[in-house]
Amino acid sequence: xxxxxxxxxxxTVKSPYSFEYYDSSWELELMKELEKDILVKKWTKNHxxxxxxxxxxxxxxxxxxxxxxxxxxxxKEIIEIKGRHLLPTFKRKMEAAQEWCKARNIEFxxxxxx
Length: 114
What we know:
alpha+beta; Trna Endonuclease, Chain: A, domain 1; four-stranded mixed beta sheet; two-stranded antiparallel sheet; 2 helices; 8 strands
């Protein structure tokens, strides 16, 4: 399980910001990996993307994915980090994100831990 660690990651070179907030040890770990990845040109959590989806009660909601990444070749990815135990409740958000990303030629990835 991730620790409920929150904080500021200040070792950013590939983010447009001087620091990025993280909400778990998993996010902090990914931030460090993104900074080292030679295929990653830019990344941020502060992207402003909100993907609309319908919840199980038929209400329109908004889902803010964890990371927006731009690769060296110009392709883009959205990454969401989720614990495996949360994946069943994440289904509607994931389906909406897959459709939203496909319409914009962005790859959507879910990193599932434990």
